[in-house]
Design a protein that fits this description.
- This protein is 34% helix and 14% strand.
- The protein is of the alpha+beta class.
- The strands form three sheets. The chain has an eight-stranded antiparallel β-sheet. The chain has a five-stranded antiparallel β-sheet with strand order 3-4-6-7-8.
Length: 630
Amino acid sequence: MSSESFNWHEFLGRWQEEWVPRAGEDEDDGQTVVPPGRPGADEAAIAAAEERLGRRLPPSYREFLAVSDGWHVDQTAGVYQLGGAADINWFQDPYDMAPLYEENLGDNPRREDVLLAGMWQRALRLETDSDMSYALLDPGDSDQDSEWALYVYKGWSGELPDRYPSFRAYMEAMYRGFHSDRVERADFVNATTRAQDAHVEEARLLALRGRYEEALPLLEEALSFGRPQSAVLLNQLRHLLAPRSSRDYGNLAADPRYLPEILPVQAMTPARGEWRLGGDDHWLGMMTARGAARKTAEAVLSTMRDGTHRYAPPGPWGRAVAEARESARWGATDAAWRVLRDALPLWEAPGPLLIAPIGLLADPVLGPLITPERGREILATPRAGERGPAPEPVPDLDPPGLAWLTEPAANRQPLDGYRCVWVEGIDPSRLPALIGEEGAELSAPADPRKASWRAPKPHEREGVELWEDRAVVAVGRTAEAWAFAFDGHCHHHLNKLFLSPAAAASSSGRAVVVWRDARRSSPGDHPAAFHLSVAEQGEELYAFTVRGTEIQRSGAIPQALDPARLFRPEDTELDCELRMLEALYTELGLSLPRFALTQGTLRTFTTRSWTRAPRAGEGFAYISFMRHRP
């Protein structure tokens, strides 16, 4: 960092002029009311210090000494006073820190770790008053401008030292800390605070105009000075850039203007069971301390936990949210996002401290739609009455058809077994009555993967036989108006007890069942099976099951779906499966929404058994695996 253009007289003079104690400190308590600087050292004194030390001091520290020969840093806990040219000396590692750091370097240490381990024996000690803390300039850690890195080690903390690339960087950070420590003083108003507050307001307007990239550095700098409102505005931008992260919005969660948007977002972490600081009571206590009514916080947390919360803002934006939710709740997430995207300019801020529709993130149906790319699109869209260019729309996320079922998922493996029932032209809410177990009802929106994993096994359910294979299925509607019930985590295998639900599902129209057998654990196992059955008006029209080179078939199978044509012995299982799925899309118009099934939420229900009761002379085996967490 070059200090050629840095004016130490101006910087330190401004700091001197702004000097006041922290809020609550005794203004008559000696040094806290005395300006922090001292007269500068002359060149002879600086040169004498360099001769004594045997090294030329780094540029920014030299220039500082010429303006002020020492400084009262006044950290809350840490370094209090920096000495002058006559006070500084080599640290010489009096506490044998170097061996402790060297023994942890390992065989292939990072450069920064090697520098830190050697710093203790090379460093120049600057502080003369501290709370078991040291300000150490390291000549072995220098840059192209001959600046030395400065390390602050707080001996009582047990933490690694804080590193600053130069003395100037350290002093600038201390100046920002000086401001942050005094932000609670109502009379702490000066040119710097006014300039930073102006930056906050400028950033707010830039963000509403879609120019969030320009707003970010303004808010980050204002936050480093501790300016009010900077954190809550910055957190909104950061939250939408990383929608799965957690952010704190402080007292905004209790303000009646913002509570409907913010309190559910704050409840997301405890609702997921990720709140580690004392559980629900601690979170509720924190919200109450910030001004929220405990009953209100409890009610919001309850709806977030059971999936019944609804983001329901007023006005045209609220109507668009309701329309988008209706599409997304059946899996049409791309269509839902397009509705939201078109309506974003209509979003209105309930007050000046909200600059984006953060409440979307807490909606169990719409929240999962907000990917980082879509979060950036929200931030780049002018809203709340402000004007600006619209951003380039992000691409849709759902591919057509079914081929995606063979593609690697988040775990880099294709789905290991899946089965689905499609029914043409009916409302998805009718599926539980057609193929659900007795009393089956649609659940609240849930992660289909977790719903399947958490479902009780046959031996855990009263009245369920061990041979039964009841599936927890996610429910939705395809772009081609087929209602579907999908089990994407089926670890069962097709066997002689299999009973296709196609006929039961087809009482109101055509129904299709596909079952892709779970892949076997080793190459020597039997090949996985693929089943298709099609029914209409309660009667099966045709069906087949392919297992390796063996094909079982019934009915008049259309040529386009002929398994002998699609499952060729010379091809791999995966190639044959892909060819079959493409044919189902082309011939029958079958598809599934990838995003909703792999990253979103859908309503679920439990089906009737996909296997029938064993007949006389037939047997079955049931194996249950228990996973114990350490």
